[in-house]
Design goal:
Length: 367
């Protein structure tokens, strides 16, 4: 049975070594610099944080990776795709504003930020994978144009997937708007008629003539709609909404299939920081108190083993008093399932193993 190496260091420091220096030592020991970065485009996939949420990773961590890659003559950029939901990261202009507001700019990170799926989330590459649920993944084009993919993940809880780890960062995070539609929804978008102003922007952007305007209100013919999500990005008042009706287990498996589309056939490496483990995603405009103490930093070439190692480490931690998890019944012997009982994070892991993305079994190497 295959076993992957996962490297780990805690968050303790000394007068001789701070956390950023520890991170550099970790990724070097884990083998990141064995990748040939010279004159290659490297995408560092990261979540810039929804403004108002303070649990996202500080940009200082990304600069460690950027400096190492640039020292190897690599051409590196930080990237994410636009969101499906209404917020500060729905289009590239607002998304860049949010990233800069949270400290992600060339002066603090040493490289540029590129929103991978373009201005309105429609700049995508179609990647055939022939999965159980996804036949053709829709990935932000700039990510697919890269030669190398590095994930830098804030490991935390998630209300739909149990936790947000490397696979969630890669699969959901790299999906274009249409890709996120495919993962989150079994159905099609709809128009919130009270909000709709009948401007026709959605209709102009629909390539399938699925939208009509009557009495200054838009409506979508679900028989013609293909679920591309362009109308969501086009609406100036956020009146076009998604059902969000996909079952959590299927959502998790679609994320695994999208991760495969992102990673296959090119070098990749993965880093997860298990700090400020909030119960909900960093897409929230707020962050609740952490559910467990800070654990440490993990790195591996195997995103599946990395996620399992991080989950195991969290589950060994005591629950913090006063947290969201402390208010829940502890009946599952799993902090993530106890936090969100309607989720099962292992469905994503099991499906990723089936797809050949990595292994559940790992050697934890402490440095």
């Amino acid at each position: 049975m295959a076993v992957s190496n996962v490297y780990y260091t805690n968050m303790r420091t000394t007068l001789q070594e701070n956390l950023l220096q520890k991170l550099e030592r970790l990724v070097k020991k884990a083998g990141m610099m064995d990748i040939d970065f010279s004159n290659k485009y490297t995408a560092i996939k990261i979540h810039f944080g929804e403004p108002g949420n303070l649990a996202y990773l500080r940009p200082n961590y990304s600069k460690v990776l950027v400096d190492l890659i640039r020292s190897a003559n690599g051409r590196v950029f930080l990237t994410d795709c636009n969101t499906l939901y209404v917020g500060r990261r729905k289009n590239a202009l607002d998304h860049l504003d949010a990233a800069y507001e949270n400290g992600y700019n060339p002066f603090t990170t040493g490289c540029h930020v590129i929103i991978a799926d373009g201005l309105k989330g429609t700049d995508e590459a179609l990647v055939p994978i022939d999965g159980d649920y996804v036949k053709e993944a829709k990935i932000g084009r700039a990510i697919m144009d890269a030669d190398i993919v590095i994930s830098l993940t804030h490991f935390k809880g998630h209300e739909a997937t149990g936790f947000g780890g490397a696979l969630k960062n890669l699969g959901m995070g790299c999906g274009s708007r249409a890709g996120k539609m495919e993962m989150h929804n079994a159905g099609k978008p709809y128009v919130h008629t009270i909000t709709c102003i009948g401007c026709g922007s959605c209709k102009k952007n629909c390539a399938h003539e699925a939208i009509s305007i009557e009495n200054r209100k838009a409506s979508i013919d679900t028989g013609k709609c293909v679920g591309c999500g362009r109308c969501i990005g086009a609406c100036p008042v956020d009146a076009v909404c998604t059902m969000g009706d996909e079952a959590n287990d299927i959502l998790n498996m679609k994320i695994a299939e999208y991760s495969l589309a992102v990673l296959k056939d090119r070098p990749n490496f993965h880093v997860s920081l298990v700090v400020d483990v909030s119960p909900f995603c960093d897409c929230h405009g707020e962050n609740d108190t952490p559910i467990v103490p800070n654990v440490g930093m993990f790195a591996s070439f195997d995103p599946v083993a990395l996620d399992v190692a991080c989950a195991d480490a969290v589950n060994r931690q005591p629950v913090l008093a006063g947290s969201y998890l402390a208010e829940k019944e502890h009946t599952h012997h799993d902090h993530f399932t106890d936090t969100h009982p309607d989720t099962n994070w292992e469905t994503c892991i099991d499906h990723a193993v089936k797809l050949g993305l990595g292994n559940r079994e790992y050697n934890l190497i402490t440095i």
